[in-house]
């Protein structure tokens, strides 16, 4: 089931989207397989800290964040993966690890991998470990105001 806050946000913005329910899964590649969608179309959200400030790095499921490339692309002096304790209470109503990539709603920058921005449609966690939202990348970009940078590499 789509998290209430996310549904309200998307409906208020009048975007076309669909939802997809899948078997419980926790890694992005497991989610893509369970949902029967290409991994390159599944956007995973990785929480990072840029000079101590939380941000979202959004990239295709089969890729990983290259922290050095993200540091260079953002101009930050220090980039590290955020610990769960750093963001546990920041997303009320969403399961930890299943936050949708709308960091701007929580005062966070959103960085999207250039490889993900090439897609016409993307899917992402809907606030649970069993639901996805599918929408056009153009609508996602309009809503999330991401900064598109090159920071990801294939596993």
Describe, in plain words, how this protein is organized in 3D.
This protein has 155 residues and is an alpha/beta fold. It has one domain (4-154): YbaK protein (Alpha-Beta Complex), CATH 3.90.960.10. The protein is 26% helix and 32% strand. The chain has helices spanning 4-12, 28-35, 67-74, 84-87, 114-117, 137-144; strands at 17-21, 42-50, 53-60, 63-65, 79-81, 109-113, 121-125, 131-136, 147-149, 152-154. Strands 1, 2, 3, 5, 6, 7, 8 and 9 form an eight-stranded mixed beta sheet that branches. It has a two-stranded antiparallel ribbon with strand order 4-10. The radius of gyration is 14 Å and the shape is globular.
- Based on secondary structure, the structural category is alpha/beta
Broad shape: globular
The CATH architecture can be named as Alpha-Beta Complex
> What portion of residues belong to β-strands?
25-35%
Counting DSSP H or I runs of 4 or more residues, the number of helices is 6
Give the N-to-C terminal Cα separation: 30 Å
Provide the CATH top-level class.
Alpha Beta
Give, in order, the helices and strands: HEHEEEHEHEHEEHEE
How many strand elements?
10
Percent of residues in helices comes to 25-40%
Biggest sheet character: 8 strands, mixed
Outline the low-pLDDT stretches.
Answer: none
Oligomer: single chain
Number of domains: 1
Our Rg estimate from Cα atoms comes to 14 Å
Q: What is the CATH superfamily classification?
A: YbaK/aminoacyl-tRNA synthetase-associated domain
Mean pLDDT: 93
CATH topology label = YbaK protein
């Amino acid at each position: 089931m789509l998290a209430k806050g996310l549904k309200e946000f998307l409906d208020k913005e009048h975007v076309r989207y669909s939802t997809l329910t899948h078997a419980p899964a926790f890694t992005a590649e497991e989610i893509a397989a369970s949902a029967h969608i290409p991994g390159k179309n599944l956007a995973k959200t990785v929480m990072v800290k840029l000079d101590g400030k939380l941000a979202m790095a959004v990239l295709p499921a089969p890729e990983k964040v290259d922290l050095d490339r993200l540091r260079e692309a953002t101009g930050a002096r220090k980039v590290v993966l955020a610990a769960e304790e750093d963001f546990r209470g920041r997303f009320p109503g969403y399961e930890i690890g299943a936050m949708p990539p709308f960091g701007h709603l929580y005062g966070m920058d959103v960085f999207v991998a250039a490889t993900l921005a090439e897609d016409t449609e993307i899917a992402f966690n809907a606030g649970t470990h069993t639901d996805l939202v599918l929408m056009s990348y153009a609508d996602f970009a309009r809503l999330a105001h991401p900064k598109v940078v090159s920071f990801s590499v294939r596993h």
